[in-house]
Structure formats: structure tokens, C-alpha cells
Amino acid sequence: MKQWRVSGGAGLDHLQLVEVPVPEPGPREVLVRLGAAALNYRDLLTIKGGYGSRQLKELVPLSDGAGTVEALGPGVTRFGVGDRVTANFFQSWIGGPPSEARLAGNLGGMLEGTLTEYRVFHEDGLVATPPHLSDAEAASLTCAGLTAWSAVVTQGRVQPGETVLVQGTGGVSLFALQFARMAGARIIATSSSEEKLARLRQLGADETINYRTTPDWGKVARGMAGGLGVDHVVEVGGAGTLNQSIRAVRVGGTISMIGVLAGPAEGDLAIPLVVMQNIRLQGVTVGSRDQMEAMCRAIARLGVRPVIDRIFPFAEAKDAFAHMAAGRHFGKVAIALRDD
After folding, report:
1. Rounded distance, CA 202 to CA 130, Å?
2. Other beta carbons less than 10 A from residue 138's beta carbon
3. Within 10 A of 250 (CB to CB), how many other CB atoms are there?
4. Pairing status of strand 308-312 against strand 332-336
5. Residue 29 forms beta bridges with which residues?
6. Does the 2-144+286-336 domain belong in CATH 3.40.1360.10?
7. Model confidence over 119-177: pLDDT tens digits?
8. Do domains 2-144+286-336 and 156-283 have the same CATH topology?
9. Do 276 and 249 meet the contact criterion of CB atoms below 8 Å apart?
10. How far is it, in rounded angstroms, from Cα 175 to Cα 332?
11. Contacts 24+ apart (CB under 8 A), 196-203
């Protein structure tokens, strides 16, 4: 079989297509023929060797993958040959609150990833794929989908009629928009592109803000929420956008901290406002398998489809990374791992 592997250093120049034997499943393991993988901003950092000291120095990248069970090891009870499955990001986090042990096994970082034609998984590290989704759509659920679900539903507990602000048009933000709509929330969305803002409105955004032409978008968002501020911000920019999020959110509101896309902060962070307005800053790190199964049930029940920007052939994986790094995508960038 073929797989893409980072070896001999960091950077895309060290991402090589190699031939390796098809692995054999052991006790309670399943062999999955992967149909598609999907990219996250995290994967760009991983390729560069910048995702922490516990990242494998040589690895198959990507956390997101979906495919079909090809073979079973002894003692498998959760799946059968031919079942369609999707990988869970944290292979050891089945349920309950996060812990050091449960967060220790993330795909494409601490563990080998999904940019490979076949991969062995422990049966507990997989969920059944929603039947109406393609493998590329299902793969996008592993990291971005579950992160947004945790931010909006599991940890965020967004209620009907509340106002949610989402930033940009990447995978997490579009999933957050879709899940906030499912919850009956009012949605404000930001982007630097008028074309993308129009597409956000088509997806269900009630109000949109161009943050390039309106750099003080936090104040504008507060005004759109009746002058009191939004209930919840799904914060993917990090320090570079946090001050605007703090200005946008209401007294006692929540900011779900997810990404670092916007780089460092300009000037001092408005931490005194966090204290004075009793704002909850909430870190979100994907989620458990139980949460992913709940998300998949909701997606299947309501027929939700992830937004896929583009699917690259397996041989053009490096082009997929370059496309994502350019930042022009709307939704998820995926890679097809087989032709059929």
C-alpha cells in the first residue's frame, strides 16, 4: 500500500509518498481501507514540526479519515467487514471529562495519521459513518466537526434564540454555523471576502461583517445583538482576534477558544473586560467518542452535509496542503485515498 510520510526533517519537502506493507489487525483491532482524509490548520503545523514536543518526529500526517472495514482482528464486536467507519480524533477518549490519559492518543500527532490507503485502528477509536455522507464528508467530522459540536452543543449549550458569532469560512466555523442553526440560534458571521459573506448568508447566517473593511467588528457585532452583545463567540483566530471577540460578547457570555489562525495580539489583551463582564473563556479540544456518536446521530437525523471546498487526488496531497495554506478555501479541503 501507499502512504504519505514526513521523514528526515520538517516541512512539505520532507513529505514523501512511500510503499509499505498492509498492516494486520491484532486483538480488538480493525483494518480500514480509507476512502478519504481531510485537512485542518493543525496539520500544517504538524508538517512543520511545530505541534509540541510529544509530536512524532516521523509520522503519517492528518487526523481525519473515513473508509470501510476490510478485516477484523480477534475479539472485535463493534464492527463487521464492510461497515463504513470514521476515525475519532482522540483514540483513547471514549467518554467522560478530558484527562491526561484520554488526550494522549491524537491521530496525526502523537499517533500515526490517516494519509494512507490502509490503517489499523482499535475498534474503540471508530464510529459508524452517517449513511448519507461520502467518505470525504465523513472524514471532515473527525476534528473540525467534533470541535464545533463541542463548542456549540456539548460545552457551549447554545439555546434557541441566542446569538452566536462565528469567524471566517474554515471547517470549524462552517460546522459551528450549521450546528448553531440546528440549535435555533441567531448567527453573525465574519469574513474578509464579500463573495464568502454571500455564501455564509446562503448557509444560514442572519448577519455578516467584513472584518477587513470593518476592523472594529466586535463593536458592530455587539450592536447587531441589540447593543448588549452576542451570547457566544466561536473564536478560531486566537490572540489576534480575541480583543474583538471580548468586545462582541455580552456580560456573562461565552468565548470558545479553538484556534490560532490570526497570529499574535495587536496591543494588550482586554483581560480586565473579561473579569469586569464575567465572561467565560472556554478552551475546546475536539471531544470524546461518545460526543462524536451523538453528533453523528444528529447529522444523520437532520441530513446535514459538511461543506467541502475541494477534493484532491491522493497523488496531489502536497497541493492540498498548499491550497489550504493559501487561505482561499470555503469549508474543508479533502484528499481522496482511492479511485472507486
Report:
1. 24
2. 31
3. 21
4. parallel
5. 122
6. no
7. 999 999 999 999 999 999 999 999 999 999 999 999 999 999 999 999 999 999 999 99
8. no
9. no
10. 10
11. 196/169, 196/330, 199/169, 199/330, 200/169, 203/174, 203/177, 203/178, 203/307
Which amino acid, residue 65? G
CATH of 156-283, one of 3.30.1330.10, 3.60.70.12, 2.40.37.10, 3.40.50.720: 3.40.50.720
Handedness of CA 9, 14, 18, 24 (dihedral sign): positive
Compute how many other C-beta atoms are within 10 angstroms of the C-beta atom of residue 88: 30
CA distance 254 to 72: 44
- Is 280 buried (19+), middle (13-18) or exposed (0-12) by CB count in 10 A? middle
pLDDT digit string (tens) for the chain, length 340 residues: 999 999 877 788 889 999 999 999 999 999 999 999 999 999 998 888 776 666 787 899 999 999 999 999 999 999 999 999 999 999 999 999 999 999 989 999 999 999 999 999 999 999 999 999 999 999 999 999 999 999 999 999 999 999 999 999 999 999 999 999 999 999 999 999 999 999 999 999 999 999 999 999 999 999 999 999 999 999 998 878 999 999 999 999 999 999 765 445 455 677 778 877 889 999 999 999 999 999 999 999 999 999 999 999 999 999 999 999 998 899 999 999 987 6
Contact (Cβ atoms closer than 8 angstroms) between residue 338 and residue 33: yes
| Phi and psi, residue 332, nearest 5° | -90, 145
* Domains in the chain: boundaries: 2-144+286-336, 156-283
Look at the block and give the residue holding cell 496525526.
108
Q: How far is CA 108 from the centre of its chain?
A: 13
Cell numbers that stand for 251 in this block: 456580560
What residue type is assigned to position 41 of the chain? Y
Q: How many CB atoms lie within 10 A of CB 172?
A: 28
**C-alpha 3, offset from chain centre:** 22
Q: At what angle do helices 217-224 and 239-248 cross, to 10 degrees?
A: 30
- Record the pTM: 0.93
Q: How far from chain centre, in Å, is Cα 76? A: 28
